[in-house]
């Protein structure tokens, strides 16, 4: 089963669900992670305020922080591959990442599809995008 890690910006507490004005996306991801853990999924959340060591010991998270910084969080990593940045994955996406969703019934979808990237890319200056 896949190892899912969610690296989050500094939150007031471990779940980020504190007080009366909680971000609805934090409520959703907290419930989804708890549900997946109950199903036996290897999933963990790492809060920059309470678990900064996790951001330095994981190669993917460390590289992300050096390149993008904390403004790009949350970062979702599955088996060392970045699958989402800037927002929390939905429960359905987490189930798919874990191999338990409807998209996972056949062969697992490549991580590139989760990011919405084409299978082949000419790169910034090698393609026909005109970006350079």
From TrEMBL:
Gene3D superfamilies: Glutaredoxin (3.40.30.10). This is Arsenite efflux transporter metallochaperone ArsD. Pfam families: ArsD. One of its GO terms (molecular function) is DNA binding. It comes from Cryobacterium algoritolerans. InterPro entries: Arsenical-R_ArsD. GO terms for biological process: negative regulation of DNA-templated transcription; response to arsenic-containing substance. Coiled coil: none annotated. The gene is arsD.
């Amino acid at each position: 089963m896949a190892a899912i890690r969610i690296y989050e910006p500094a939150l007031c507490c471990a779940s980020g669900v504190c007080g009366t004005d909680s971000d609805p996306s934090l409520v959703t991801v907290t419930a989804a992670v708890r549900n997946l853990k109950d199903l036996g999924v290897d999933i963990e959340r790492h809060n920059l305020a309470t678990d900064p060591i996790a951001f330095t010991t994981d190669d993917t998270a460390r590289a992300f922080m050096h390149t993008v910084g904390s403004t790009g969080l949350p970062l979702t990593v599955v088996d060392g591959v970045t699958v989402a940045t800037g927002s929390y994955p939905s429960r359905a996406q987490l189930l798919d990442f874990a191999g338990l969703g409807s998209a996972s019934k056949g062969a697992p979808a490549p991580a590139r599809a989760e990011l919405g990237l084409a299978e082949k890319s000419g790169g910034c200056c090698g393609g026909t995008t005109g970006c350079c």
